[in-house]
Specification:
The structure holds 3 protein chains of 3 kinds. Chain A is built from 9 helices and 10 strands. Chain A is of the alpha/beta class. Chain A starts with 5 loop residues before the first strand and ends in an 11-residue tail after the last helix. Chain B has a domain of about 230 residues. In chain B, helix 3 packs across helix 8 and helix 4 runs antiparallel to helix 8. Chain C has one domain. In chain C, strand 1 and strand 2 form a beta hairpin. Classes of the chains: A alpha/beta, B mainly alpha, C mainly alpha. The interface between B and C is large, with 48 and 48 residues.
């Protein structure tokens, strides 16, 4: 069996007395869409932060594409093909949507010690950026300043930026947060397409989306992975029901 | 640069025309005071332009930029006092030493951010000030007179006020052009992106520190050039060039003129220095007016003069973030 | 040896003085997220008030108390008129705004008191030296300063750690919106905290007045050293400010006392004589650079920011 693209082993993170991540072990195969669900405060975003390199774990290892990336800085992980979108939108507010994505393209187009040419007229940056914007459905809004875009468009832009870095794997942190039902459906369609080309680790509260998309699901409660399996297995799991699904009333849409 | 007919471009065109024609007027009327004043303005505008690179576009609030004025100036002064008066030697040395200093200071300071960065750039500038004051061989606190200006052969006589003025103007315009190209290049995008959201920059794959350090060194080097010019202008260098309030003046020029705009620093330098001249004619306690005026600018005209002109010409919904960039504008 | 002890005591005194300034600065930054460059102006104002009131009342303690009260009032006035409009803004705005205030205060003082500066003489009963050791006579006044600032430090500790106000201060530092939501009058709280900072700065100023000359610009010189202290100690941490103040005070004093001798071992006589003062002044900045290399967040970083 081929080595999983992403392999997490015994990942632990403590903040003072609180254990945010408790010996988490997880494997994501190439081409899989793996979802992580759990109640608020379960440590999902902390997990993503450790995977992307923003937070240093107390112990445990992370292997990506066969290499140990546990202590690599964030930017290097991105260069290796691990892209991330943020739960709370983190964009460049005083730039246009196209500028935002073009920056992501630029980050992976060699070094940026080029002091003379106009970056905004550089087709090698603009074209892939437009392509990514079209992909997520923001093609018409390319020249709009981020501060003038709607919340749903921000979420789409987050994805576009992650895609523009030509990743092997996407870490998506609640991409559908705050979206209307129509917008969420659109996002699900897009993720279904992306599934064909990329490996995806998806954190989401939207259960419909999760069960529609995921190949496998990990359930996180109080920093511990209490169950891993196919969507059906998870749905049927009594522990999971008690801890999480049972309390899930209606899927929260924004 | 956008060549639209609007208030801002009109002002800049008028200002540039004035600056180009000033020596003609000075020579005809014999009023050399204006020439001297504006030479000083041009030199400090160059320093402010270099600061704008890291402050306006890069978001790095350096409160120690005047240190490079001193370093560049002292390079000239020290070499001159040791008998080396050739500009072809002095000026490259001034630039090189400024670059080196910026590299060392940048390596230490750029590990910090926010308030820490402001404070330690301030502290390092003071350290260099004390260093200058301790150079007893070169005048210490009292400063060092420069007997002969930088020599560039017979074809360029810097002792001639008019020639020197045009040299400063040329260098200023060249610097403004250079900075404009820089901030719109790939490098500039990284710098502006890092100002806008550094966390995101690292997340998409940029090792931001090395770019910011490079930017810091470029800015320091340009300011060193300004220091070399200042030394020639006043025929004198002293630690006072580097006192921290001088760094404050530079920041005021950048903000007053309008951050992240090409001509903002020049406008700010003109505004501040002309205002100082005008106010000190009214009262010797003019800083009582300047101080609160500064506070008012911060509170109500945050985008500076450039911003006021821009708002008049293009009223639009602008980003609410206080530190905003005029991306790619003239 | 006696000389060394004497210098240690001087260093302690300088350190305690720096603590008063640094504590105010770090408190204001920690609670209101405000970078206050004009803090040195309050120090200067305290010194000027002291010189004036002591001259008017001909009574040192009474004059000093008046000066303290006056500085407190000035501080609160500045907060109401200027500072509160700066809250929540970019730090650059703070830097510029308070820079403007420095210019204003320096010029105002020059207008009211003239450019020459003032002197403040100690009353006879304070102007004595007491024998601490058989061979060591140390000025009583400096001992008083050390004792007074230690008491202030203890008071601050008690205030921040044990009282309701202190709890609010600490809570404000960690979560502003929450404290506001609890119905606490944040506006008043901020004014009081700023006033406290101003009083500390004024106290430092009036205590230093007899020792140094009271002149325009005295605030800026010491302000930068206070910044160095905060950076070393960790911005927002009073404990850090205390430790770092002592550290910096000691290094600066003992450095200035003994570094020239050290230089003389290495350099020629003349070179050492001229380089010594400047290099001694640089010592604390070198110290700061060293700390930053090892711990960019300072010795006691406040992690809730």
């Amino acid at each position: 069996m081929a080595e999983p693209l992403l392999q997490i082993e015994g990942l632990t993170k403590r903040f003072g007395g609180v254990v945010a991540s408790d010996q988490i072990s997880l494997a994501v195969s190439d081409g899989e869409l793996h979802a992580i669900i759990g109640p608020n405060g379960a440590g999902k975003t902390t997990l993503i932060a450790q995977l992307s390199g923003e937070i240093a774990s107390n112990s445990g290892t992370i292997r990506f594409a066969g290499a140990d990336i546990t202590v690599l800085p964030t930017w290097r992980r991105s260069r290796l093909g691990l892209a991330r979108s943020f739960q709370i939108t983190s964009l460049f507010p005083d730039f246009t949507a196209l500028d935002n994505v073009a920056l992501a393209v630029q980050a992976h187009a060699g070094h940026s010690f080029r002091f003379w040419g106009d970056a905004r007229r550089d087709a090698r940056l603009r074209q892939p950026a437009m392509a990514a914007l079209d992909r997520v459905g923001l093609g018409e809004r390319a020249d709009v300043f981020v501060s003038n875009l709607s919340h749903g468009e921000h979420r789409q832009l987050e994805i576009a930026m992650a895609l523009a870095t030509r990743p092997r794997m996407l870490l998506l942190d609640e991409p559908m947060a705050g979206m209307s039902p129509e917008q969420s459906a659109g996002m699900v369609r897009m993720l279904r397409e992306l599934k064909q080309e990329l490996t995806i680790l998806l954190i989401e509260h939207d259960m419909e989306a999760v069960f529609a998309l995921a190949d496998r699901i990990t359930v996180l409660v109080y920093g511990r992975a209490i169950a891993v399996g196919s969507p059906d297995a998870i749905r049927a799991n009594p522990e999971v029901r008690d801890a999480y699904l049972g309390e899930q009333q209606v899927v929260a849409h924004g | 640069m956008i060549a639209a007919l609007n208030a801002r471009n009109l002002l800049i065109s008028a200002l540039l025309t004035f600056l180009v024609l000033l020596p003609v007027y000075a020579n005809l009327s014999g009023n050399y005071f204006l020439l001297t004043l504006f030479t000083r303005i041009l030199i400090l505008a160059l320093a402010a332009t270099s600061l704008n690179l890291i402050l306006g576009y890069g978001g790095m609030v350096s409160f120690g930029h005047a240190a490079y004025l001193g370093i560049g100036g002292y390079a000239i002064g020290i070499l001159a006092s040791e008998g080396v008066t050739s500009g072809f030697v002095q000026w490259p040395v001034a630039l090189a030493v400024s670059a080196l200093a910026a590299l060392v200071i940048g390596l230490l300071c750029l590990r910090t951010r926010g308030v820490y960065f402001i404070m330690i750039t301030l502290a390092f500038a003071q350290m260099i000030y004390y260093l200058g004051a301790g150079l007893a061989r070169y005048g210490g606190d009292d400063g060092l007179t420069i007997q002969r200006r930088s020599q560039f052969g017979s074809w360029l006589n810097l002792s001639n006020k008019t020639v020197f003025y045009y040299v400063c103007l040329a260098l200023l315009l060249a610097t403004i052009y250079f900075v404009w190209r820089l901030v719109n290049s790939r490098f500039g995008m990284v710098i502006q992106g890092a100002r806008s959201n550094e966390r995101r920059m690292r997340s998409i794959g940029f090792p931001t520190v090395r770019y910011r350090l490079t930017c810091f060194v470029i800015a320091g080097t340009l300011c060193g050039l300004s220091g070399a010019l200042l030394a020639n202008h006043t025929d004198f260098v002293s630690p006072a060039m580097m006192y921290w309030t001088r760094s404050g003046d530079l920041i005021v020029m950048v903000v007053l003129g309008g951050m992240a705009s090409s001509f903002g620093p020049l406008i700010g330098a003109v505004a501040l220095l002309v205002l100082e001249e005008a106010l000190s004619g009214i009262t010797e306690y003019w800083q009582i007016i300047l101080g609160p005026l500064l506070l008012l600018v911060v509170l109500f005209a945050r985008r500076g003069i450039d911003g006021l002109l821009d708002a008049a010409a293009f009223p639009r919904v602008s980003p609410t973030k206080p530190l905003e960039a005029k991306v790619g504008r003239g | 040896m006696i000389y060394f002890i004497e210098q240690c005591l001087n260093g302690l005194q300088l350190g305690m003085m720096l603590f008063l300034l640094a504590a105010g600065l770090t408190l204001i930054f920690g609670i209101m997220d405000l970078v206050n460059l004009a803090h040195g102006s309050l120090y200067m104002v305290g010194a000027y008030f002291a010189a004036t009131f002591v001259a008017w009342t001909d009574n040192f303690l009474f004059g000093a108390a008046l000066a303290l009260a006056a500085t407190l009032l000035v501080g609160m006035a500045v907060e109401v008129v200027a500072m509160r409009r700066l809250y929540g803004r970019d730090h650059l705005d703070h830097v510029l705004g308070t820079f403007g205030l420095i210019l204003f205060f320096n010029e105002l003082v020059r207008l009211l008191w003239g450019p020459a500066g003032m002197t403040l003489s100690l009353p006879a009963w304070l102007n004595v030296a007491v024998p601490l050791l058989p061979d060591l006579y140390y000025p009583l006044y400096r001992i008083v300063i050390i004792a007074a600032t230690v008491m202030v430090a203890l008071f601050l500790y008690g205030l921040v750690m044990r009282t309701r106000l202190g709890m609010l201060i600490r809570a404000g530092a960690s979560n502003r919106e929450m404290v506001g939501a609890l119905g606490i009058n944040i506006t008043l709280l901020y004014t009081l905290v700023f006033g406290l900072g101003a009083a500390l700065a004024g106290l430092a100023g009036l205590m230093q007045a007899p020792i140094l000359t009271v002149q325009i610009g005295m605030g800026e010189n010491i302000l930068i050293v206070a910044f160095v202290v905060i950076v070393i100690g960790g911005i927002g941490s009073i404990r850090g400010a205390f430790v770092a103040s002592l550290f910096v005070g000691m290094v600066d004093t003992i450095g200035r006392a003994f570094f020239p001798d050290l230089l003389r071992l290495v350099l020629a006589r003349d070179a050492a004589a001229t380089a010594a003062p400047a290099m001694s002044s640089m010592l604390i900045y070198v110290l700061m650079a060293a700390v930053l290399v090892l711990r960019p967040e300072g010795l006691f970083p406040v992690s809730n920011r």
